[in-house]
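Input record, target 12 of the design panel.
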């Protein structure tokens, strides 16, 4: 969409041109893939066509080579050179047949996003003859190139583990995640190799390595507990499943380009709500705007090709806000797919002249965005260990794993608070649209009653309400009382949207995770805490069993009753937003960690370090301390960037606009007086504006001084830098915003230098 911009155009004219372009510009359309007979292809036929799946690999490799790879993938042997070279050749041919000219090791440094470096398949072979050197071009990809690459480890966050003179790091192919091709420019594509990222000394520098480690230790602990409970089961592997509900905003890209705060920080640092926003509650599940539908439809097609199972799309609560949700997958694959979905959505939105916003709170006063992580555990036979079944009160296996999760929260709630903490998510947590900072678990009335009944050794209460519903085993049936409508099944639990960690039928929904962050670290921490709790419960069961050949029902119930009592403090069925809950949580001894810098300190407290380093072995002490420094530095830098961006906007755009409008009002008042007309309205507006402008100018100077003080603050403690930013810059930014937002109401629209919320939220 072309907008002709001249140097003479005012900010107002640029905004109006963008509005016209958004309304009248040509809309992008794509052709959905068709079969040979011209009918649309089914999604199942497109799914995974750009993925080098195990099935594809099996067809491309000799059977002994493929069998060798499967043994390596299951951890039974190392990947030998012959196997690696064979796979590299097969995947190169497969990728080049799909237009690939380059390959990349795709990894997840501790930046909250992904990283990649593209290398060409093209290579040159020199032959020396009497006539001189002869160069022959060939396409080449070796097993060594597949297995590892070498990025500069000093150029990514390392928390002091790597420096410029210690720059070597390695990316290593993660064989548990399939390679894929993504379409690039000019009809080409790139082969992506999902990878982990480690230092020269073998330390994890990324998000994925620790996630894979946590999956392995949880698998061992859970398998051990299962085989203790059911010796005949012979479970050898337990994996965690994950489904990430991704929320986001879409705004017009031209409007976005006119907002320096959105471009630099990801959120609006100033801006007044329009008269109508989300208060009518009509956007949630409303009709998806046609422009947005074109974006999501194209995204879903790309995701189908990449084997990403997008299941649900809908409007979210706020105007301009939407959600995508996939089908559950193994957690490390689900994380890969979530990050890939975010990247693909960014590219597709750009093609439609839209910009996707992943910041947790891009607009003040309306709902922010989260990434609800739906987490569960399953065996290698596909049994969900968090499935209550029809009689949860006698399903001791389910209850023990449920109690392990509750014990993990009760012991390490502060760690989960660390895992969701960032400068951006702080704007969302507890803001009446997201869970508060107190980590508690919601189970629902029925499971709450099941645990209480077991603890008190009494029968279950009856949940039926005869005039409206009839009981069935494991749930209830609702009678809608309309003849033309069928009775419907009712879930075991209601939904508590205020709970940060809610049980939702056969999984836990970790609702507090921020929309912008990678789900890797929150899931890693959850895996670690649950692993430690499973180990603790297994030890209690062994002590209870003693020399007996197997556990009795009384043995299991004794441990179950103990842990029901121990974990009762972390269970809460009410309104997590209420002041009463804050006071009750304090009485229960639950941590109420109000700021990110305060939360960060818990990462290196002895209790949590021991669990992460000694008990589970997921982290080394140096890896944990480096992560502590990284998250503190990131917080301080993010806030400092926001403060400096706001200073630029105030000094170069807001104050000049206010001065210009005051001048216009003054000139208008003077002109009216010369012709004998009353200028009271103009003078009243001037008098209202003048103290605001003076206050803004004073706050501008104060924020400048605070920024300079933060920059020059000397301390070896990274957490102190984060606290300085939190205690001085964050409130100063909020204070300035109040004045600017009040000025926006007074200053005439044609003088205002930035697109307003109405233009940002309501032009798609």
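The sequence produced for target 12 reads:
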């Amino acid at each position: 969409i072309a907008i002709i911009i001249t140097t003479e155009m005012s900010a107002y004219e640029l905004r109006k041109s963008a509005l016209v372009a958004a309304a009248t510009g040509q809309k992008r359309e794509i052709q959905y893939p068709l079969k040979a007979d011209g009918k649309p292809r089914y999604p199942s036929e497109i799914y995974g066509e750009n993925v080098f799946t195990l099935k594809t690999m099996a067809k491309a490799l000799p059977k002994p080579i493929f069998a060798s790879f499967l043994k390596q993938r299951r951890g039974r042997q190392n990947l030998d050179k012959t196997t690696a070279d064979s796979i590299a050749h097969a995947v190169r041919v497969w990728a080049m047949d799909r237009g690939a000219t380059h390959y990349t090791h795709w990894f997840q440094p501790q930046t909250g996003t992904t990283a990649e470096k593209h290398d060409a398949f093209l290579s040159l072979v020199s032959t020396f003859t009497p006539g001189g050197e002869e160069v022959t071009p060939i396409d080449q990809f070796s097993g060594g190139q597949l297995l590892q690459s070498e990025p500069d480890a000093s150029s990514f966050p390392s928390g002091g583990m790597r420096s410029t003179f210690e720059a070597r790091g390695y990316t290593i192919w993660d064989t548990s995640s399939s390679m894929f091709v993504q379409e690039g420019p000019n009809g080409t594509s790139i082969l992506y190799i999902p990878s982990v990222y480690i230092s020269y000394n073998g330390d994890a520098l990324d998000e994925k390595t620790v996630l894979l480690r946590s999956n392995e230790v949880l698998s061992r602990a859970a398998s051990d507990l299962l085989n203790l409970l059911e010796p005949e089961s012979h479970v050898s592997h337990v994996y965690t499943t994950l489904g990430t509900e991704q929320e986001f905003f879409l705004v017009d890209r031209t409007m976005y380009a006119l907002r320096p705060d959105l471009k630099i920080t990801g959120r609006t640092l100033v801006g007044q709500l329009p008269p109508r926003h989300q208060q009518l509650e009509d956007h949630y599940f409303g009709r998806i705007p046609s422009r947005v539908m074109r974006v999501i439809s194209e995204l879903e097609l790309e995701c189908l090709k990449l084997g990403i199972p997008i299941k649900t799309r809908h409007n979210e609560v706020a105007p301009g806000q939407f959600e995508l949700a996939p089908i559950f997958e193994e957690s490390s694959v689900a994380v890969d797919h979530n990050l890939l979905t975010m990247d693909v959505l960014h590219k597709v939105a750009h093609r439609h002249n839209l910009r996707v916003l992943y910041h947790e709170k891009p607009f003040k006063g309306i709902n922010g965005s989260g990434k609800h992580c739906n987490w569960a555990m399953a065996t290698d036979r596909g049994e969900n260990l968090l499935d209550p079944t029809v009689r949860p009160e006698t399903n001791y296996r389910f209850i023990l794993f449920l109690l392990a999760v509750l014990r993990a929260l009760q012991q390490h709630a502060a760690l989960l608070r660390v895992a969701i903490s960032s400068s951006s998510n702080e704007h969302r947590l507890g803001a009446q649209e997201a869970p508060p900072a107190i980590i508690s678990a919601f189970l629902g009335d029925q499971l709450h009653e099941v645990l209480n009944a077991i603890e008190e050794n009494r029968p279950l209460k009856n949940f039926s309400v005869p005039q409206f519903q009839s009981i069935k085993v494991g749930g209830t049936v609702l009678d809608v009382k309309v003849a033309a409508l069928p009775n419907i099944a009712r879930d075991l639990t209601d939904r508590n949207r205020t709970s940060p960690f809610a049980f939702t039928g056969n999984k836990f929904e970790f609702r507090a995770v921020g929309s912008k962050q990678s789900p890797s670290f929150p899931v890693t921490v959850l895996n670690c805490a649950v692993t430690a709790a499973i180990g603790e419960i297994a030890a209690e069961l062994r002590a209870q069993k003693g020399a007996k050949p197997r556990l009795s029902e009384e043995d299991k119930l004794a441990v179950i009753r103990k842990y029901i009592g121990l974990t009762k403090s972390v269970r809460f069925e009410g309104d997590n937003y209420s002041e009463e809950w804050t006071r009750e949580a304090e009485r229960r001894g639950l941590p109420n960690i109000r700021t990110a810098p305060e939360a960060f300190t818990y990462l290196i407290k002895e209790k949590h370090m021991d669990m992460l380093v000694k008990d589970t072995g997921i982290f080394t002490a140096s890896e944990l301390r480096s992560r502590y420094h990284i998250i503190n530095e990131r917080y301080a830098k993010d806030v400092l960037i926001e403060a400096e961006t706001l200073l630029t906007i105030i000094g170069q755009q807001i104050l000049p606009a206010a001065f210009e409008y005051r001048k216009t009002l003054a000139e208008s008042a003077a002109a009216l007086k010369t012709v004998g007309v009353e200028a009271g309205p103009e003078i009243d507006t001037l008098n209202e504006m003048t103290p605001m402008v003076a206050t803004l100018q004073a706050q501008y100077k104060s924020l400048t001084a605070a920024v300079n003080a933060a920059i020059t603050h000397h301390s070896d403690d990274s957490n102190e830098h984060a606290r300085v930013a939190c205690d001085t810059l964050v409130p100063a930014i909020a204070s300035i915003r109040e004045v600017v937002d009040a000025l926006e109401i007074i200053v005439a629209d044609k003088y205002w230098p930035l697109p307003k919320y109405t233009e940002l939220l309501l032009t798609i």
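Confidence is low (pLDDT under 50) at residues 464-474.
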